[in-house]
């Protein structure tokens, strides 16, 4: 429908174009005049829906190679100087080799850095996505503590190399390891690299190798393959892996069950198949049901429109909610937002802040999105101001969520004032920031402002490889067609040609 509407608008424009129009041979105009909507106008809304669903299903696809999985050492109690070292390593933005220099400085001061301390630093760096300094610390540990390294330590290193550089370098490191260091952990780490990059043939061959070597005796390699199959839309192969696990007496765990439930949900219209899996989990005892299983079930109920079933599942999450598990709090906030349960969002956010007085931005994004979804703009404003109060700059994603909330509530004037305020505060607005305003102007038929803000969106988006939602462009073109406004249509057309979007 979008392409047809755009095409019709263009046919109208073409019939009214003046002699001054340049030959439509290249760029945006030539592509659209054939009736094709260019890739740069792919619907932003589809992307936002994907991100929204990603938040709900986040626990399903948590990395098998998290710091907790790969770093299995008994962590010693931290001394004051150890905490200072960790803070110094964590807070700096290191260039090449600088993390190592920090460690060397501390070592010269006579402070011995044992393996457990280094592993703890690596784990925390990985947790916060600081993979480059984590790799530097791991490399330093390899040089200083080589004789103490286990297969699990090499597995961490393989994972970091793949993240910082590429899979080929991780493969080279793996191949260069002595035979006794190439255990189940390192093989599984390499498998994870293949899965992460969707290298299907290599992943399947690596899994086969692990089976031949007797390394596929726990759930981790199976989870990796099931994660891959879900990512490439081959859910039927997930069920085959579950069958193989049962035949080999490999016990499933929380992630296995989540992947299994997701596969069944995608293959069968009847959500009863998913409920059977939950019954199997419960058969092992209520204490065996992890919160992620309820999260998966609740998400599926919501997507199926079964709100009456989703609400009890969400309440079960609260019952088993592990204190201190931030992902659990965030998922619960998202689920309550999807259900339109304002009290649930407020209650969970309050509980989270009792444990973490200053949550990071991802949690503010989650709660702000949920508050906007349940229509609580007043609380959304307070939450945004709270973030501003202890952060020097404005986060553009947070600002866009609140801006979008104003527009959806029909509060255009408030949206304009808020937009002007964040521009004045030197917030680096992106294309989406201006597009949100465009949507508000279109809704209120303020076409000159809609065109102006859309032009700003396109200029910003050009450098960001951001995609404008095609409905906004077609909405403006349709208005020009209805009004017979050839002059403004020409102006917009020439702008698009010059920008070559």
UniProtKB/TrEMBL annotation:
Entries under Gene3D superfamilies matching the protein: Tetratricopeptide repeat domain
Keyword annotations of the record: Repeat
GO MF term set: mRNA binding
Annotated coiled-coil segments of the chain: none
Keyword Transmembrane attached: no
UniProt-listed InterPro entries: PPR_rpt (IPR002885), TPR-like_helical_dom_sf (IPR011990)
GO cellular component: mitochondrion
UniProt keyword annotation of Transcription present: no
PPR repeats: 183-217, 395-429
Domain of life, per lineage: Eukaryota
PANTHER family, per database record: AGL218WP (PTHR45717:SF15), OS12G0527900 PROTEIN (PTHR45717)
Name of the molecule in the record: Pentatricopeptide repeat-containing protein
Organism phylogeny: Eukaryota, Viridiplantae, Streptophyta, Embryophyta, Tracheophyta
């Amino acid at each position: 429908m979008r392409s047809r509407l755009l095409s019709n608008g263009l046919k109208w424009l073409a019939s009214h174009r003046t002699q001054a129009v340049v030959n439509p041979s290249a760029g945006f105009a030539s592509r659209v005049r054939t009736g094709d909507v260019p890739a740069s106008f792919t619907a932003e809304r589809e992307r936002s829906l994907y991100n929204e669903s990603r938040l709900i299903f986040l626990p399903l696809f948590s990395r098998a190679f998290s710091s907790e999985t790969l770093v299995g050492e008994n962590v010693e109690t931290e001394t004051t100087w150890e905490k200072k070292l960790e803070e110094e390593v964590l807070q700096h933005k290191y260039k090449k080799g600088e993390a190592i220099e920090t460690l060397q400085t501390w070592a010269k001061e006579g402070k011995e850095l044992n393996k457990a301390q280094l592993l703890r630093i690596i784990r925390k760096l990985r947790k916060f996505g600081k993979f480059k300094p984590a790799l530097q610390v791991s490399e330093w540990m390899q040089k200083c503590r080589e004789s103490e390294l286990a297969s699990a330590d090499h597995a961490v290193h393989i994972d970091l190399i793949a993240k910082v550089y590429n899979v080929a370098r991780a493969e080279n490191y793996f191949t260069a390891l002595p035979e006794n260091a190439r255990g189940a952990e390192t093989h599984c780490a390499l498998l994870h690299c293949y899965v992460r990059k969707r290298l299907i043939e290599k992943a399947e061959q690596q899994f086969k190798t692990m089976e031949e070597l007797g390394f596929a005796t726990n759930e981790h390699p199976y989870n990796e393959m099931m994660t891959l199959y879900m990512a490439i839309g081959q859910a039927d192969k997930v069920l085959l892996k579950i069958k193989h696990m049962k035949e080999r007496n490999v016990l499933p765990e929380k992630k296995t069950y989540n992947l299994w439930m997701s596969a069944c949900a995608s293959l069968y219209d009847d959500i009863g198949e998913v409920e059977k899996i939950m019954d199997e989990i419960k058969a092992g005892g209520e204490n065996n049901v992890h919160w992620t299983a309820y999260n998966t079930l609740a998400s599926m109920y919501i997507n199926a429109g079964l709100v009456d079933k989703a609400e009890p599942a969400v309440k079960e999450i609260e019952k088993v909610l592990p204190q201190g598990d931030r992902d659990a709090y965030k998922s619960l906030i998202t689920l309550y937002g999807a259900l339109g349960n304002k009290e649930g969002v407020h209650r969970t956010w309050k509980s989270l802040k009792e444990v973490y007085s200053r949550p990071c931005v991802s949690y503010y994004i989650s709660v702000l999105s949920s508050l906007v979804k349940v229509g609580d703009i007043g609380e959304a404003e307070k939450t945004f101001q709270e973030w501003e109060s202890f952060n020097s700059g404005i986060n553009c994603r947070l600002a866009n969520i609140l801006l979008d909330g104003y527009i959806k509530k029909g509060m255009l004037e408030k949206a304009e004032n808020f937009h002007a305020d964040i521009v004045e505060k030197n917030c680096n607005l992106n294309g989406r920031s201006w597009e949100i305003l465009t949507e508000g102007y279109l809704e209120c038929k303020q076409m000159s402002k809609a065109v102006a803000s859309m032009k700003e969106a396109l200029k910003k988006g050009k450098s960001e490889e951001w995609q404008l939602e095609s409905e906004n462009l077609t909405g403006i073109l349709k208005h020009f067609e209805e009004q017979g406004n050839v002059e403004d249509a020409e102006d917009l057309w020439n702008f698009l040609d010059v920008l070559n979007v």
